Every structure is written in structure tokens, then in C-alpha cells.
């Protein structure tokens, strides 16, 4: 360790008049008593005299003690203007010397210690998603699990920083600075929108690591957002030492929040992108109890049986179809008008949630599909959504865990078409997709809602 040069300290003491000003408060020309000792001001003045080269040499309490001793001895032994000196003496008479010394020591020594801890650390922004789609935001860790960018680099969403520990992993006998791993914590938040997400880890000497604190959005507030809103993600990185969080990096990065109804575009390469239509399938919506009561009135014995055979049916498939038919007629009675759209859940398209579709009494194909699927999932049926570039409709397993599917065209809810016609129309469309090889070419996709739930995608909580 370097020895402290007291010649250097003596040079620093030539500006001790500034320290006196901090100790004595206002310099009164009339000699009246000044304010009591301002510890913060004194500490600030002392810090200003401890230059960068001095920071590098102060690593132990005895050196700091010596600095203070010289400063105080000099302060109390130097003849200054009578009024100023008297103001200092009068102020110190009222001070608690032990607490004054402790406060100054803690303040300045902690600064010195902090600088020594973080001097080899730096950080910089790695990822900040410029558009955050609230429909998926709380599920980004799953959506972007194992995601890498075009260069093959890990690319956490929506925010991450890279922390570098520049301390060399190999030191020579001439190196005087301690060098080792550092424990790091990175925090991030969006004021009024999220909690404070944090993540911590070890960064070894001469290495870098990526830290991606998760953000959890307040969905009660998110559902009230009706237009894009520009906000800032706040980021802070700390070294964790001796029960202290020592800040060494902070930033405020802009982003834009999009309403929960928007099927916003995501980064290319996200796996199973269409699976997130399941976020719109909301089996716990407020209207479910009323719908269930109406279903009971349409089914034998006033009972909704799922994957249980009604006595009048010969097969389980017939009983399943009976339940789906009742759902079709209950929703048809609510006169939900089909509205034409240019695509099935096109990126950037607004998709109303089932409860909103019921209230508005209208919906595009994807909206009527997720509405119908929500009710079937509530009942316990194994439901599917068929997605093509320009259409969506619903399917289900005719028997629990069976291999046979049946289908219904949900856009016919708003007219006078019978369930039989809606059923046969959907079967015909599905067979056309199969014959054209659209499922093999990924031009169409069959989304198994039960499998998607097991994967981890949950319904958005929309009141």
C-alpha cells in the first residue's frame, strides 16, 4: 500500500479558510455568534480538498484519523480574524465533539471507501425495448426466454445493462490496489407504472455480465391506458459491500407503453409468437356467471356436463357438441355483430377482450374467437384457436385428451345462422387448410390453449 504523503496534506491545508467557513457558519463582521457547526458543509469542504491522488492512498482508518487530526489541530491553533475565531470557538462549545467527529469521519471515510470499491466498475445500457406492449409486458420473461439477437447475443427484454469489472484478473508485485470479484445489484422501474425490479450477481475480475431486472406492471392502471404513452425506465447499478448499496451507474431511458388491447409487434425471432393470443382468452371475466346460468337453461336437466355423456346422446362427441351448441346460442342471443377486419390479430391491431366484446356487442374474427374460447375454457373443455393470416375460429377436443377435433365458425354469432351451419362451415375451412398444407408451412397454426397454459402463458387480468 502507498504511504500517505503528509507534505501533500500540508499543501491541501493552505485552503483551510474554506473549512472554517463551513465550521463557523456565516462570517459575521460584527463579531456576533455564528450558527452551530454545519457537519455537512464541513464534510463537503474537506472532500473538496481530498484530490483524486489522495483517494488512491486512503484505505485504512489510521490514515483518515491522521488527516482529521492535522485539520483540527491546524484549525484550532491558527490565528484568524478575531470575530471568525470567536465564532468557531463559541459554536464548538455547544457541539458534541464525539458526535461531530463521528459524523465527519463516517461521511468522508465512507466516500473514500465507496470510491475504492467502485473505481474498477462501470456499466452501460445493453437493451431497452423502445415499445412495450402491455398485453405481454408481465410475460416478457417467458416470451423472450433464451432469445438471442441477430449476432447470437443474449438480449433480455425489456431492459438490461452490462456491468464490467475492469480489475485485472492477473496482478503483478507492482500492483498496489486490491482486486477481486464484486457483488452487483441492478434495479429498474418505471415511475407510477411498475414495481422496482432487481437482480443481483457476482462479476469476477476482468469480466462482464448482463443484468436484466424484471418489471412487473400495474395492470389495474394498464387497462385504463387508451393511447400510447411515453415514459422513462430508471436504471441503477450498485456494488454491494458491507451492507451498503454503493451506486456506480444510473440512467433514464425512454420507451413507449402501448395499451393492453394492442397486439403489438415484437422482435423478430420470438418463439411461439401466436401463442400469446391466449392472453386474450380470459375464462374469469365478469360475465361468466350470467352466461353459465343461461347455459343451464339450454341443457338437459339444467346441468352443464363437460366430457360427460348426456343420457340422450350415444357418444361423448355428441354431448360435447351439445354443450358447444348451447354456448353458440347463448352468445347469439346477445346479438354480437361481426365486424370485418383486414387480418386475424395482425401485429399492431387492437383486439378487444371478451368482456369488451360483450359490452360493445360487436367484434372482428379474433375477438369473437377469443370470446368463445374463453367460455369453453371456463367450462373445462380442451379448446383450440385456429389462426391464419386473415381469419380465426375455434375448435375443441370431442373427448377429453382425444385426437378428434370439432370446430365452430364464431363470426356467425351475429346473424341468424344455425349452429349446424357454423359447425359445418368451420370444418370445411379447417379441411381446406389441411389440404393446402398451411399448417406444415406455418401459414396457419392450431393453438392448443391447454398446452399454452402449461407453457406458462396466463390470461390478462381484465375487469
How would you summarize this macromolecular structure in one to three sentences?
By secondary structure, this protein is of the alpha+beta class.
**What percent of the residues sit in helical stretches (DSSP H or I)?**
25-40%
What spatial form do the alpha-carbon principal axes imply? elongated
- Percentage of residues in DSSP E strands: 15-25%
How many runs of DSSP E, i.e. beta strands? 16
What order do the strands of the largest sheet run in, or round the barrel if closed?
Answer: 2-8-7-4-5
Main sheet attributes: strand count, strand direction, barrel closure: 5 strands, mixed
Q: Roughly what is the average pLDDT, rounded to an integer?
A: 84
Radius of gyration equals: 35 Å
Structure characteristics:
single chain, 463 residues, alpha+beta, 5-stranded mixed beta sheet, 16 strands, 35% helix, elongated
Give an account of the 3D structure.
35% of the residues lie in helices and 21% in strands. With 463 residues, it is an alpha+beta fold. It has a five-stranded mixed sheet with strand order 2-8-7-4-5, with helices on one face. Strands 15-14-13-16 form a four-stranded antiparallel sheet. A hairpin with a 2-residue loop joins β7 (229-241) and β8 (244-258). α2 (16-24) packs antiparallel against α3 (39-49). The radius of gyration is 35 Å and the shape is elongated.
Amino acid at each position: 500500500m502507498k504511504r500517505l504523503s503528509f507534505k501533500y496534506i500540508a499543501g491541501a491545508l493552505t485552503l483551510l479558510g474554506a473549512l472554517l467557513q463551513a465550521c463557523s457558519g456565516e462570517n459575521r463582521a460584527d463579531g456576533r455568534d455564528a450558527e452551530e457547526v454545519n457537519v455537512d458543509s464541513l464534510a463537503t469542504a474537506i472532500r473538496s480538498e481530498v484530490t483524486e491522488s489522495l483517494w488512491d492512498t486512503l484505505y485504512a482508518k489510521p490514515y483518515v484519523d491522521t488527516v482529521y487530526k492535522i485539520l483540527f489541530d491546524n484549525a484550532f491553533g491558527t490565528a484568524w480574524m478575531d470575530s471568525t475565531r470567536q465564532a468557531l470557538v463559541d459554536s464548538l462549545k455547544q457541539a458534541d465533539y464525539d458526535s461531530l467527529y463521528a459524523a465527519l469521519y463516517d461521511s468522508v471515510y465512507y466516500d473514500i471507501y465507496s470510491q475504492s470499491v467502485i473505481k474498477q466498475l462501470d456499466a452501460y445500457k445493453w437493451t431497452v425495448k423502445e415499445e412495450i406492449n402491455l398485453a405481454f409486458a408481465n410475460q416478457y420473461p417467458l416470451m423472450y426466454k433464451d432469445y438471442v439477437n441477430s449476432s447470437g447475443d443474449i438480449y433480455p427484454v425489456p431492459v438490461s445493462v452490462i456491468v464490467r469489472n475492469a480489475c485485472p484478473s492477473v496482478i503483478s508485485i507492482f500492483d498496489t490496489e486490491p482486486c477481486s470479484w464484486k457483488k452487483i445489484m441492478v434495479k429498474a422501474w418505471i415511475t407510477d407504472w411498475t414495481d422496482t425490479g432487481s437482480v443481483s450477481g457476482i462479476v469476477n475480475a476482468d469480466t462482464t455480465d448482463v443484468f436484466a431486472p424484471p418489471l412487473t406492471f400495474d395492470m389495474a392502471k394498464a387497462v385504463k391506458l387508451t393511447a400510447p404513452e411515453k415514459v422513462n425506465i430508471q436504471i441503477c447499478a450498485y456494488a454491494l459491500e458491507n451492507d451498503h448499496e454503493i451506486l456506480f451507474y444510473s440512467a433514464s431511458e425512454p420507451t413507449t407503453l402501448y395499451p393492453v388491447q394492442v397486439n403489438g409487434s415484437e422482435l423478430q425471432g420470438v418463439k411461439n409468437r401466436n401463442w400469446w393470443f391466449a392472453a386474450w382468452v380470459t375464462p374469469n371475466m365478469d360475465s361468466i356467471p350470467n352466461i353459465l346460468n343461461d347455459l343451464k337453461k339450454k341443457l338437459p336437466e339444467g346441468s352443464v356436463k363437460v366430457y360427460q355423456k348426456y343420457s340422450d346422446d350415444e357418444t361423448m362427441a355428441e354431448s360435447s357438441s351439445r354443450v358447444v351448441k348451447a354456448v353458440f346460442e347463448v352468445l347469439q342471443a346477445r346479438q354480437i355483430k361481426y365486424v370485418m377486419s383486414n387480418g386475424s390479430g395482425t401485429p399492431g391491431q387492437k383486439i378487444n377482450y371478451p368482456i369488451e366484446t360483450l359490452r360493445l356487442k360487436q367484434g372482428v374474427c379474433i375477438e369473437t374467437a377469443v370470446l368463445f374460447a374463453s367460455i369453453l375454457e371456463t367450462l373445462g373443455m380442451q379448446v383450440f384457436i385456429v389462426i391464419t393470416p386473415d381469419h380465426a375460429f375455434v375448435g375443441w377436443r370431442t373427448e377429453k385428451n382425444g385426437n378428434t377435433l370439432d370446430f365452430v365458425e364464431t363470426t356467425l354469432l351475429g346473424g341468424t345462422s344455425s349452429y349446424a351451419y357454423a359447425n359445418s362451415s368451420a370444418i370445411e375451412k379447417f379441411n381446406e387448410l389441411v389440404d393446402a398444407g398451411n399448417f406444415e408451412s406455418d401459414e396457419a397454426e392450431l393453438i392448443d390453449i391447454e398446452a399454452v397454459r402449461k407453457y406458462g402463458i396466463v390470461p390478462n387480468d381484465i375487469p
